[in-house]
Queue: 4 jobs
Job 1
Amino acid sequence: MTTAADAAPPKSLLRRLLAGFLLVMLGIWLAALAHIVWQVKVDQRRQTAIVNRAWTRQIMLNMQSLPPDPAALARIGRGIEALRLDMFREAGFETHARARVWLGGRLAYDSAPGAPLDDGWERWTERDAARGITVERREKPNVDWVFTPSAAKYLLSPLVYSLPFVLLPAWFIVRMGLRPLNAVAQALEAREHESRAGLAPLPASPYRELAPVVDAVNRLMRRLSDRLAREHEFLADAAHELKTPLSVMQINAHLLETAADPAQRLDAGTGLREGVARATHTVHQLLAFERARQAPADAPLRDLDLADLLRERLALAAPLALQRDVDLELRADHPAVLPLHRESMAALLDNVVGNAVKYSPAGGRVEVRLDLDNGATCIVVTDQGPGIAPALRTRVFERFYRVPGQDQGGSGLGLAIAERAAARNGARIALDAGPGGRGLAVRVDFGMLTGTV
C-alpha cells in the first residue's frame, strides 16, 4: 500500500513557469544563432567572391606585361599566391585557394596540381583574348570559425549573462502573480473545521484567470451543501416515518412477553408482523425515493420496449392482485421502443400499479394500457378504488402526504417516487377520474419520445 512517505513529491507550478521562461529564452537564442550562422555564411561567401575576383585580376594584370611564355606566366602565378599566403598567415587567417593559368588553351600553371576541383568554392575567371591568356581562381569561403570554441564562447555569452537578469525578475513576477491563488487556498483551508460556513461560497475573484476556478469551487460547494441537506432530510424523514411502526412493534413485542391470554398473544403477534411489514415497506420506499431524487441526469439511457417492461412488472404485481382478489389486465398489443432508464421506470410502474391494486376493492379490476395518442406514447393505469378528489390531485405528489380517510396503510411516497421517475425519463404523470367517474386513472405521457409503436 502506498504511504505518504512513498508518494511522489508535489510538482512545483513556479518551477514549471520558470522552466517555460527558460525554454522560451533558449528557443529565441537558437533562432538567433541559426540566423547568425546563416548570415555569416552569406556574408563570408560574398566577401570571398570579392577577394577572389580581386586576386584573379591582380594575376592577370601582372601577366599582361610578360611575353607569352608558359614558364614566365607560371612564375608570376606562384609569386602572387606566395605573397597572398604570407599576408594572411601574418594576420592569423588560413585560406584555401587554387589558381590556374592557360596560354593558348594549354595549362601553364596550377597551384594545386592533381587536386580535385571543389564546385562549392567561389570561382572567378579573367581572359585576355588578344594574348590567349586565361586566369581562373577558386577560393573556399572561410566559415569554419563559427564552430570553433572561441566562436561558441562569443555566441553563448549573451544567453549565459542574460539568465540571471531574466529569470530572477520572472521568479519574482510569478510569485507575485500566484498570490491570489494562494489566497484562495488559504480561504479554503481556514474553513476546514467549520460545518455550515465551510460550504459557503467563496467571494468572486477580481482576476479573470481565477474566476473559473472560484466558480467551479462554488458550484461544488453548492452541490455538497445540497447533498448534505438531502441527507439530513432523509434521516429526519426516516426517523419520522419509522417512529410509528417501531412503537407498534415494541408494544406488541411487550404484549407477546407479558400477555397470558392466547387470544391477546395472537393479536400481538399479528400486530408485530404488520408493524414489521409496514417498517420494511417504509424503508424500501424511502430508499426508492432517495434513489429517484439523487439519480444523475446524465445516466445513460437504453432503448427499451415498454410493452415487455409492462409485462415483467405486472407479473411481479400478480401475487398481490391474487391476494386481494383483483383482476389485472394489460393491453399492449404493439411494441413501443423508447430511450429509458430501466431502474427508474420499473420503480414508476411498480408504485403506480401497486397503488391501483392496493386501493381497488375485492373483485375489482385494474387495467394497464399502452397507447399511441397523436404520435405520443402513453401508459394509462385505471382502477376501481375510491379515487382522489380533484383538489388533492396535486398534493398527493408531495412526499409523505396521504389522502385523509384512507384505510390502507402506506408511507405516502409512492406517487412522489413515480413523479420523479417520470421526470427522469422525460415523461409527465397526471391524475384523473377513472372510467365513468369511478376510481383513479394515472396517465404517464412520454411526449414525442416514441421510437417504434
Note: The chain has a mean pLDDT of 77.
Job 2
Amino acid sequence: MKNTFKLIFLVFGILLVQSCANNNSDEAEYIALEKIVETDVSEENINKLLHAYNSYISTNKDKKELINPILEKALAISEQYKQESIGIYLNALLRDNLGDDQKTAEYLLKLGDVLKIQNKKEASDVIFGSFVQKFPNDPKSAEISANLGGILPIQIIDQLAIDRLENPDQYGINSVASFKYVDACEAYALANPTDQKSPELLFDAAEMAKLLKTNNKALNIYDWLIESYPNYKKTPSALFIKAFILENEMNNIELAKAAYELFLEKYPDNDFADDARFSLENLGKSPEDVLKMIEANKK
C-alpha cells in the first residue's frame, strides 16, 4: 500500500513544480500531509489530506493550471482509499476542462461507472451516450452503444422532462423523475460543455432543484452557470435568483448581500436591477417592517 501511494505522487509530482514556486499556507499543509501519509496511510490522514487539497483548490479555483494537477492527485487518492469521493473530483476535472483527448475519455467512462454504482442510471446513460458521440472510434464505444440500445443522451433527458409531469406529488411534479432530470442535465453539461443546450439544461435543472427545496444543489448549478456561461442570456437571472435564495431561503444575509452587489456591478441595467437595489436596502428586515416602510413612503 505504501509503495502504491508513493507511485501516485511520483506520477503527479512533476506537475506541481510551478505551483511550488507560489508557496502558501494551503500548499504547505498538503505537502506536509503527503509526507505523513507516505508512512501512515490511515483513514484520518487520508481525510486530512483530501481536506487540504480541497482547501487549496478552493483558494485557487480560478487558476486551472494550479488546481488541475491537485484534482488529479485527489482523484487518484480517492480511487485508492476513498471511493465515495471519486465523483466529486471527476466532476471538477470535467467541468470547463473537457477536450477530445484520451484523458477526457477516461474521465467520462469513470464517471459513468460511478453514477451507475450510485443507481443514477439515466445520468450514467447520458454520460456513456455522450462518450459514444465524442469517441465513436474508441474500442469501447460499440459495446456501450449496443447496451444503450441506440438511445441518444438528449432523448433520455427529453423523456425525463415528460416523466416529471406525470403523477405529480405535493410539489406539483413527480419528484422521483425530477431528481433524475436534474442529475441527467448536469451529466449532459459535464460531457458537452460547449453544446448550446448545456446552459439551457443547467438553468432548467437549477429551477427544478429549487422547486424540490434542494437549495444547495440549486446554488451549485447557478454558480456553474455564472462561472462557465457568463454570456448565456439567463445567467443574470441565475445570479439574481442565487442572491434571492441566499436571502430568503437560507437566511445568509452576508452572502446574499455580496451576490446582490455583484449582480448590480455586472448588470446595472437588467430588469431585476431595481429588485436587487430594493433587496439590498432591506436586507435583514422582516416582511412586516418592509411593508410598514412601503406604506409610510406612500403617505
Note: Residues 209 and 215 are 7 Å apart (CA to CA).
Job 3
Amino acid sequence: MRPPSCLSPIDRQAWLNRTEGRRGLHYWEGFAVQKFPMTAEGLLRLEEELKVLKGEERPAIIRAIAEARAHGDLSENAEYHAARERQSFIEGRILELEGVIPSVEVIDVSRLSGDKVLFGARVTIVDEESEDEKTYRIVGQHEADMKNGSISVTSPLAKALMGKTVGDTVEVPAPGGARSVEITAVSFA
C-alpha cells in the first residue's frame, strides 16, 4: 500500500509506520484513516484511471493551456478558461484517487459462496408491487455504477439486503415510500 502523495515527509513516514486498528480503521500519529472495501476489479479500474489521468490527461491539458495562452488576451479566451476548468477537474480527481487507493481493503469475492447476501454478491430481486426483476452487484462506494448494475454497499438498498437470504422479503426505503422486494437469487460469480 502506498501513502497518499499529499502527505508531508513526516506524515508519510507515520503512514508507513501505522498499525492496524479496529473496525477497518488504521491509526497513525493519533489520526484514524478509514478503510474502503472494494473488489479487486474495482481497485484495478481506479489504478488504471489514475495512470491515465497522470500519464495522458494531465500532459494533454497542459499542452492545451499553453496553446490557448498563445492566442492572446486571456480574459476573453474561452479555450483557455475551458482548459483551466478541465485541468482543475483532472487535478481534483487525481488527488481524490491518491487518497482513496491507499485506503482500499480488497475483498476476495471468489472465496465467497452461499445464499446469504454479502459484499460482492450479485443479488436478483423482484419488486412485489410491480413484479420488476433486477440484478445488482454490491460493491464498494468508489466503484459503484448504477448503469452497470453495481450498487454501493452504503446505499439504502444494499444496507437492507445485507445478511438476508434467498426467499426473504425486504422493505427498502425509497423516495416515494418503502418498497417490498423479494430476494430470488444470490451468486458470487
Note: The chain has four helices and ten strands.
Job 4
Amino acid sequence: MGDYPEHTVPAGQYLMIGDNRDNSEDGRRWGFVPEANLVGSARRVWLNFDWNRDPKITWGRFGQRIE
C-alpha cells in the first residue's frame, strides 16, 4: 500500500488501521468510520504476529488484557 500523506481525522470519525502495516486493506484505503458505527471495545490480545521475528507468534501476549 505504500506511503500515505498526512491526514486529519474529522471529529466524530475514526481511522481503522490494520495490523499488517503496508499489506492491510484498512481505513487508509476505504476511509473513515463514523463513531455511530462502532460497537464494543477491545479487551484482550487475540494474536500478536510479526514476520520479522522468530518465533513469528508471541504466545506470551495471547489473552493479555488491553489497558
Note: The longest strand covers residues 13-14.
